[in-house]
């Protein structure tokens, strides 16, 4: 197993680091959404958890009692209510109460609680189940960190319908032109997913399918979930090197198999300065590619770098205008994807 992937002794929580060939002691722990949800369940109903799950969560809390646990983004995803187009505030109140209280416990309190019937909570939390999403554009205004991923993953979903009909190199050229010229951004992890799926081997193909959930009856909802997974991985990588959120030597704690599998193939190998802004050099394991495909990719990487430099020098747009440009592209892709899904019934 890669050195950046380590499970606890119960094989329940996975600690994801950023480097491919070295481990480190984390001081900050970014909690993914599934992890935060399990902590909430432990808080209110530890007695209803399977014994091995209770033991794993208890062990996690004891082992990380002196760590900086970072649950905020997990809470944002967990409590975002697509039926409301906003945070579900009763759910937010319930979850924040649980995780804030847990973070104040000492070891004795953790152990006693694990053997108890939990903390009573009388307020109701109601969420409407969404089975099909027509658009997520309004939701992106409150989640701007997902906009780039959303547009790119929409494009990958649409390209999937052409995969068996169009030459793979021609199809991937279409993808590269889209990120270079239509949205004008480069997200390394999303690019890697496209490489794995359209140019990689069957094992890599399966990893991408598990993350992006092609064929979902609610494709936009599935894409939103995928965007959050990618966000957590990018958050980890950027904050290890840039410390934007006050995190120190962070790791990501995850229960998401698709995210964990992706992290095995994505790691940081260095740092470059772009306009005095430190940016990580993210590398990907493109094992098994033939010589022609590798050469094709190298040409594309060189082109992407050239376009990025030109864009960085000449682009005077502010962030707001860039977000509008990407959002408009996403709106068009949404309409195209939903039209295809409805036609196919």
TrEMBL record:
Chain segments annotated as coiled-coil in the UniProt record: 316-343
Alphabetized UniProt keyword annotations: Coiled coil
Protein name in UniProt: Uncharacterized protein
Record organism: Paenibacillus graminis
